[in-house]
Design goal:
about 800 residues, six-stranded antiparallel sheet, eight-stranded mixed sheet
Length: about 800
Amino acid sequence: MIENPDQTKNHNIGIFNVMKMYLLPFWPFYLICSISGFFISHTYLRYINPVFEVKAKVLIKDENRGVSDQLSRSYGGIDLFGVKKVVENELEVVISRPIISEAIIRSNSLVKIYNKGRLRDVYLGNDLQFKLIPINPQTLHNSKKVKLNFDIKSKKFFLNGAEFQLFDFNQIAYNNDTFQVRCNLKGFNPKITDVFLVDVNNLESETSSCIGSLSVSVSSKVTSIMVLTLKTLETTQGKLLLNSIINAYNNAAIQDKQLIASYTIDFIDQRLSLISNQLDSVERNLESYKSQNDIIDLTEQSKVYLNSVAIQDQDLNKIGVQLSVLDEIDKYMNGSGSNPGLAPSLLGIEDPMLTGLLNQFYALELQLQKLFSISAPKDDAVSTLLEQIERVKRNIRETKTSLKQNLLSAQSKINNDISKQNSILKLVPYKERALINISRQQAIKSSIYSFLLEKREAAAISYASTVSDSRTIEPAFGNNSPISPKRNMILLIGLITSFSVTLLWTLFRENLNYKVQFRTYIERITKIPIIGEILYDKEHMDIIVTEKSRTPIAESFRTIRTKLSYFLNETDKKVLMVSSSIPGEGKSFFTLNLGCSYALTGKKTVMITADMRKPSLHKKFNLTIENGLSKYLINRASETEIIYETGIENLFIIPVGTIPPNPSELLTSDKLPELFVYLKQHFDVIIIDTPPLSLFSDAELIATHADACVFITRHDVTPKETLERTLIDCENNPVFKNPALIFNGLKFRGVSYGYGYGYGYGYGYNYGYGYGYGYDYAADSNKTSMFTKFFKKKSK
C-alpha cells in the first residue's frame, strides 16, 4: 500500500486556515450581511431616543458650624444645629420618594411634550412656549401620548380632539384632571398640521422612574462630596429636575432644624407667660402693701438680709428651673417614640455630659426618622440604630438621676441657709418683715423673667439663621453628547453580530451535516490515501475525458491515472476494481472516464460491468445487450462474445447481459478466474465497476482478482457514518489490495471550490481549478439558490 504523504502533515486548523475555509469562499455573503447589520444599526440609532447625562455635586457639612450654633452652645442649650451627618445615610435620603416627588412637582416633570415623528417621537422638555401645569399633581392620572394641535389664527388648540381656546381661560379639564395653561405666542407659530404629543404620568410612576434614572455616589472615600447623576431625554429639563432635587433635599434639612427651634420657642413662651403673670401679681402685692402700711424705706438690717437672701433665692430659683427642665426631659424621653424630633431646651442646665448625651440622642432620633422613610421597620440598620438609642436613653436617665440628686441636695442646703437667715427677721418689725418677703418674691420672678427672655432671643436668632448642612458646589451641568446609545459601539455590535451570525450559519451548515463535506474528515478517519478529487459536472456529461479536453475534470482523471501507475507498476498487475459505500457516488462515471483516459494513452482497456443489480455503464454507449458477464459465468457465452467495442479507440466494455436472480452466487463461479486470465492476455488495463460495499458482498468477491481497489466517496452525498464503517472494513480486510480513495463531485462552495487542497487545510499547493482555460463550474443546477445565482453571475 502506498502511503499518502499528506497524512504525515499536521491537521490542526489555525485561524488563517479557518478564514480561508469559512470566510474567503463566502466573502460576498459576509459582505452583504455585514452591510445589512451596519444599516440596521444605523437605522436603530436614527430612530431611538438618545439618553443624556446630567450631574451635580453637593458638599455635606460634617463639622462646619454657623453663628447660630455658637449662640446655642453659649447659652447652654441643646446643640440643635451641630448634629453630624453621615454621608452614607444622606445618599439614601436624597433619593427618598418624598424628596423626589417634591422635585418632580416643582420642575413640572409630570407633563411631557413630544414632537411627533414618523418613527421616533422627540422629547422637547419643558422649555417651551406652551405648558400644561397640573393643579393637583398628587391625584394626576396617566394619559399616554395624546395628540396636541394648534390653530394660531383662531386662537385654539386641540388636545386629543377636544377643542380649547387659548386666551379665554386659565384652566382646562382633561381626563378628570385640571391643568393650568401657559402660552407665550411670541415667536410661536406652529402649523395646524404640526402634531405634538402630550404624555401625562401620575406622581407615583414618575417618582419611580426618576429614582431608577438617578444615581448618587461619593466622589472619593476621603471626601464628603455627593455626586448626583441623572439620565434624561433632554438636558435642559434634566438640569431643572436635578437642581429641584437638591433644593428639596436642602429644604427638608432646614425644615428639620426649624421644627426644633420652633418647639424651643413655644416652650419658652409658655414659661414666660406663666412667670409674667406671677411677676405682675407680686408687684401688685408689693405696691398694695406699701400703700396700706405707709412704708417708704427699710432699715439697714433688712437691707443686709435682702442682699444675703436674694442671692440664695436666685440660686434656689435656678435649681427649680433646672428641676423643671429635667422633668421636661423625662416627658421627652417617654414620648420620643410617638413624637420624634421635638426635643426640649436645656435652660439652665450646664452639665456637659447630659448636653452631649441629649445631642447624641437627638441625632440618633433624626437618623432613625430618615431611615424609616427608606427602610423597612425590621431592617438590620433600623434594629442597630434602635439598640444605640436604648443605650443612650439609659445613659441619659442615669446622668439625669445623678444631676437631680445633686440639685435636690443643693436645694436642701440653700433652704437651710435661708432658714438661718429668717432668724434675722425677728429683729425686724413685723411690717418690714412682710415687706421683705414680698420684695424677695419680686426679685426672684424678675430674675427668672430676664433669664427666659435671654433664652428666647437666642432661639429666635437660631430659627432665623437656620441654614442647610449641605452646600451645592456644582449645580446641575451636562452636555449635548448622549451617553446612550453609543453610536460607535452600536455600529460595531451590528457589524460583529451580523458577521458572527453568518459565521455560525456557515459552521452549522457545513460541520453539522451528516454527509461528507471536507477532505480532512476522510483523512481523519482512515489511513487509505486519497489519490484524486473530481469536480461536480454541471453539464451532466457522460464522457468528460476526450483527446482535446482540457477541463479541470479531465485533468483530474489524468492526475488520477498517473497516481494509479504506482499501484499497477508491474506487468501482471492490470486489474483495477472500482466501488463505493452507497449507490449514486459516481462509480460508473469514474469507470467510464478513467477507461477513456487510459485508452487515450494507447493502452487497450476493457471495462467490466460487475454491478448485476443496476447496470448502467453500457447505456452510455447505446449498446443492445445480447450477451454479457452473466451468460459467460453460466457458460452460455465465450470471452469474445461478451466483449463489445465502445466506439472509442482502445476502449472496450463487458456488459452485464441478462440480469440474474442470484448475482452473488454467480460471481463465485469458476469461470470468473478464467475470464481474468483471458483479459490479462489481451488487454493492458482492466477496470471493474462493482456494487456498493455497504449493501452487497459482490465487491468483496471480485476484489480477490483485483490488483488495486479504488473507492469512490462523493461530496455532500456519502453519509459520514456509512463511509466510516465501510473504510474500517476495507482497512481490516486483506482482500482489498492497494486501496485508494477518490473524492468525487466537489460542488461549488461560495466563490470557489473549497473542499480540496489549499482551501483551509494548509497542504501547501493550490489547485485553483482554472488552469488558465476559462472553464468554470457552479453548483448543482437542480439546487440553484439566490446566492448561488449571484455567485454564478459574478464568476461569468
